[in-house]
Structure formats: structure tokens, C-alpha cells
Automatic annotation (TrEMBL):
InterPro entries: DUF58. The lineage of its organism: Bacteria, Pseudomonadati, Bacteroidota, Sphingobacteriia, Sphingobacteriales. The chain crosses the membrane at residues 12-38, 44-61. The keyword Heme does not apply. It holds the Pfam family DUF58. Keywords: Membrane, Transmembrane, Transmembrane helix. This is DUF58 domain-containing protein. Residues 209-350 form the DUF58 domain.
Amino acid sequence: MKKLSELFYTNLFLTGRLFLALACSVVFFLFSFFFPWLGDLPEFFFWGLVLLTFIDLLMLYRVKDAMFAKRHAPERLSNSDDNELGIYIENRYSFSVSVGIIDEIPVQFQKRDVWFKTSLKAGEHKLISYLLRPLKRGEYVFGSIRVFVRSPLGLVSRRFNFGQAETLPVYPSFLQMRKYELMAISNRLTEIGIKKIRRLGHSLEFEQIKNYVPGDDYRNINWKASARQGSLMTNSYTDEKSQQVYCVIDKSRAMKMPFEGLSLLDYAINASLVLSNVALLKEDKAGLITIAEKVGSVIPADKKHTQINKILEILYKEKTRYLETNMEALYSTIRNVVKQRSLIVFFTNYESLPALQRQLPFLKRISRFHLLLVVFFENTELKQVSEQPANDVEQIYIKTIAEKFAYDKKLIVKELAAHGIQSILSTPQNLTINTINRYLELKAKQRI
């Protein structure tokens, strides 16, 4: 008796078609009082409806495991990217069914409309794909898959529950990293905004002797090799390798500001991951330092194949903190860990000139020993406010304040340049492209 009640309260649902038929039956009974010629027709209609409902129940419940569903998900999700997931559904009934599917996605997405409708013939199976875009790193818990099945009669619906809670980690944007990696391998980086930078002069790293083609520097012609081969041969040089590139990520409260659902820290983490991978592809050494009120994680620069996975695992766990950056601790760490001249890419954020001036003495010290590149963010929200026309005194005041903050950002760039410190002022959306462009530019100019 208990199992029967559970069946009706948890797995059996009456459809709109059945309620409509019941409403028609009630109307027929009411009309029979005013139109005696209807006779026993309303009663026949009612009992016919009861019989059809019983047949529908029998069709849906006579097979125990009549449906099968399973979620197809990757081992981990990529933050800020569209991740493809799928639901495999299989009909084991001997007739066609109409199916409604609910996938209980994690609460972080705040979506209640992950509902799919389809139809399946007898023995048919389908894979339903959909996309999810997480905006925060961490663990995401998926619930069960609820499948609601209706027979061709469509009077009642049976619910099937599949799967148990499944936890997927959301890592920094490794899909973006792979995209840049594939573009770099196929020499198509210009398609996504990476500039093709002309190398000034050449490094001392000799690569090979190759046949001369129009456009090669005639100063690199190898006359001895040309005499042996009977055709012009030229020396080919490559960029210097094994140079150290450190990404230093500020985790203080300045990086907690959100833009389009992502915090500035997440933008910096995604850009650091891509930059480290590009540096490794260029056969440079990539390293990582995180800093807040104290030093966080430190990964010494290396170019082993496992280095990018180490960086990815560390970045997965990083979170913003609520205190200011301890620049003295950062300077000491760089002096102790980074033993040779390196490119230090410092991801941080300054909203005012005094905020920079508090850190400037330590930045100047770091720049004495290394090539320092300070990367901070343009406030796109304030930019939109400053570009809107002002219609009253209050809007004029707000627009003036927004323009002052935007002007302070430009002053910060000039102040850093006055002390010989490279800088990038970028919108969060273009951070990755702008950082890679500057890295390739500095490498082409042999500044590292």
C-alpha cells in the first residue's frame, strides 16, 4: 500500500489533456439537466475517460525500466566559457512517447528553465546537447535528471529519476588557453587579435641554414654555404629561448570588483594561464606568484611539460582577500626566487593615483633587476557613464566624477612610464589579447 501511494504522489502526474477531458465531462453532466435528450451520454463519456486513463496507466507502468537517461559531462568545466553538456535519453517502450527532461543544474547558475522536450519512437535514442557558462571557479554540484513520459494517449505522465549528485570542478579558462594554443600552432593568431610583430634585428640564437627566399634579410646570406650548394643560402635565427616569464597576481580587495559576472581576479587568472602557455610554446620558462597581505603560491619558472598543469591547479584554488597588497613581501619573494633577469607581469588594479604612489617605491626596486610590466584595468562602467550626455545637474556631477577617474587612469600610465616601468591599461574583456601582444612585442625587441 505504501509503495502504491508513493507511486501516485511522486511519479504520477495528470496532464492538461486529462483535466480538459474531465472538465468536458462535468459540462456534459450539467447540460444533461437542461437537455434530457443527452440521456446517458455524459455517463458513457465519463466511464470511457476512466477506461482510457486506466489503459494509459497500464501502458506507462507495465514496464519497470522503460526509459534510460544519463548526463554526459566533461571531467571539469572551464570558467567564463561555454561548456557543452549532453543528456542521453533512450526509449525502451514498444510505442512512441513524448518526453520532457529536467536537468538539475548547480545553484550557481540560478537557472530554472533547463527543460527539454522531444519525442522518441520505439527503441529510439537521442543525445540532447546544451551549453553552460560558469562565472566562478570552484565545485558545482549537479542533481538528478527528471524524465517525464507520456504515451500517445497523453492523459497521464510518468516520472523517471536518473543519476545521483555529481560534482564537477570549474577551473580557470583552459578552453581559452587551448584556443590560443591551436591558433599559435597553425600560425593563425592574427584572427583573434594578436598582432604580427616584426623582429628588430635578430638574436644570437642560430636555428638553421635554409634556402634564400625573396623577403629574407640579405645581410644573413651565408656565402660559404651558398658556394657549396650552388644557390643562395641564408642563416635563420630564432628568438632567444629559456627566458623567464613570471605572472604575479594581486589577490587583494582591489581585484574583487566584478565586470560582466567575473571578478578582476578571474580575468587576471585567465590571462595568466594563457600567457604562461604561450610562453611555454615559445620555449620560455613560465612561473607564478600570488600575493595579497601575505605571499600566496609560488611556482618557480620552468618549461617542463607538467608546468602548465601545476599553474592550472594553483590558479583553481586562488580567491580574493580583503586586505591590501603587501608589496614589501612581494619584493622580497621576487628577489629570493627570481635569480636572473626576467619578465615580471604584475596583474593588479589602481583606481587612483595615490593607490599607485603607495606601491611605487617597491615597483621601482623590482624594475631595477627585472623587466616589469604592470597590467591594470580600465573601468568600463565609468567609461559608459562619462560618454552619456548629461541632462541635469546631478548627471553633470556624476559624469564629471567618472571623467576624473578615467583621467587618473591615464595619469597612472604616465607616472609608470616616467619611472621606466612598462604598463598596460586594458578593458577586462581584452586583457588576454593585450597581454600576449605586449609579451610578443617585448620579446621581438629583445627587452627581456
